[in-house]
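Subject: two folds for Thursday's group meeting

Dear M.,

Sorry for the delay on this. The cluster queue was jammed most of the week, so I only got both jobs back this morning. I'm pasting them in the order they finished. Each block is the input sequence followed by the predicted structure tokens. Could you check whether the formatting survives your parser before we put anything on slides? The first protein is the one we discussed after the seminar.
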Amino acid sequence: MSTSNSAAGIAWDLGDLYHNADDAALEKDLAQALKRARAFEKKYRGRIERLGPTRAKFLLSAIVDLESLYEQMDRPLVYAMLLHSSKSDDPKYGALLARTQEQRTEINKHLIFFDLEWVKVPKSTARKLVKKSSLAKYRHWLEQKRVWKPYYLSEPEEKILDAKSLTGKSAFGRLFEETTASMKCPFTQGGVTTELSVQEILAKLYDPDRPVRKAAAEGLSIGLQNQNRLLTFIFNTIVFDHQTDCQLRNYPDVMAARNLANEIDGKVVEALMAATEKHYSLVQRYYRLKGKLLKIDKLYDYDRYAPLSGEMPKCDWPTARSIVQESYDAFSSQAGGIVAEFFEKRWIDAELRPGKRGGAFSSSAVPSAHPYILMNFTERLRDVMTLAHELGHGVHQYLARGQGYLQCDTPLTTAETASVFGEMLTFRRLLERYPEQRLAMLCGKIEDAFATVFRQVVLTRFEQTLHAARQGQGELSADAINQLWMKANQAMFGEVVEFTPGYATWWSYIGHFIRSPFYCYAYSFGELLVLALYQKYKDEGESFVPKYLELLSSGGSAAPHVLLAELGVDVTDPGFWELGLHLLGEMVAEAERLASV
């Protein structure tokens, strides 16, 4: 993979976690965490389920001990995961990741009892305990634990599942990551064929030259086809594992666990997706416009992300950094100060390297440290938006650290709030910086919003049908999965976009299906939510900022609908989703006016 771009050398410094993979402090944390876990079990086992309504201080002591223990246990694992993400083809990092995962499982054996005993506490007693002022900080966490009561197994069964996950879904997840990270895709241009990574060839789909885009699509399809048998088996295995887990725990459906974790009712999710699907015609309307702008009679899948301007400017790393920094500074000096820390203290890994994981993410790491961001910067304006997106996550995670390990993370439904909001701030800055590219950038933003709202519903519908087919028909062939994929995509694009035969395999590189089943609808939720919040920001001005930052600082200390109500948002209202969809319609109408075609 080439490193000849302006992000060369932009690599993170993980020293705030450990100095290196051989750091004695890492081994010490692993050993101490295990020792402390055994002591925790000895001290509290059998006493949590027998708690009386006056034992709030005893329960608080257990929670504080548990929180500290969890953080010490996870610090080595987070470090190993970050190392492995940055160079997944290094056997040393792979071995460290496996060892920390195994040790975490061993440690967790001594902690599983806590949740199981807490849900056994009688409802009346639990209600009195969580109302105690001494437990106010952990009230939501304690209440949310009890939501899972119907789905817990016995302690021995929970230990078995936890231990076996290392050789089950975790192992297959790692196999998927390493397979896609090392995959080579042929790219032929001018009679010369080179091998590109998945990330590099995906970037070519945004090239202004149509033959380049077509060659990139063909190369990606060939690369995926070469790994088709293995990837199909991985998908079948992961889906069957999820199905088995749902059956063992008696979840009412395959999305129930995700919805519980997201603290959202399944009916709200369905309302979100149904409202989005009703507006698929908006997608088709936009791509008809794009076809006219590109002067292409028939759009193909490789034309979807074609820039409207053949002279779309490149953006080097220093410029991207400046634009994003200015965007956050203009919104809030506090948020801007946090963003500056990411740049100045090397909390970002942006360069292209062989073996580096594709895509982008922000890891919250542990509250006593700080978040870290990984991305693959290829000098496109899209990468500026990706940087803004991940820094939104970073700001959110940084602010939420004050809630402590147990409540710093948010459900996925609100996890995308700050990231997409950061994109909106940066988009406005880009429009100011490149006014001559207004139509092209507006169309780019529309396409990004479509990818976040409509495409994520497509992915979720595909996932639903994939799980249903796997459950009803057994192991699925690649062709069977291809058909499910094509059907879901055609619902969104109708007859406006023609799909090439190779596109049928493009489900097989999407990591969310492997790592986080039914994650994708949270992106739709987040985008539509942010469109509404951004409108509030425009309406309210500076008075909105402290309320918004307070939302981010709250982390997972209350249910999303409770936190959002403080900003005047009611996500349980089915009509709420129409607001964001209406704003998308206005963006398409503006593009039509600017285009005058």
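Second protein, same layout:
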Amino acid sequence: AYALKIAIRRYIEASNADPKPFVWTKTADDILDSVKRFCQRTSNSPH
């Protein structure tokens, strides 16, 4: 668990060294359609 924490901290530090703004690449409707398809696939799956 300690090694994981160290790895995460190193990743964050490297990302923060050269930050990039987050840019949406899909519309809200595209995202909601994707969620809807996922829910339809998984709601009828046997568990």
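Two things I noticed about the second structure. The chain has one domain: 2-43. The two ends are 30 Å apart (CA to CA).

Cheers,
T.
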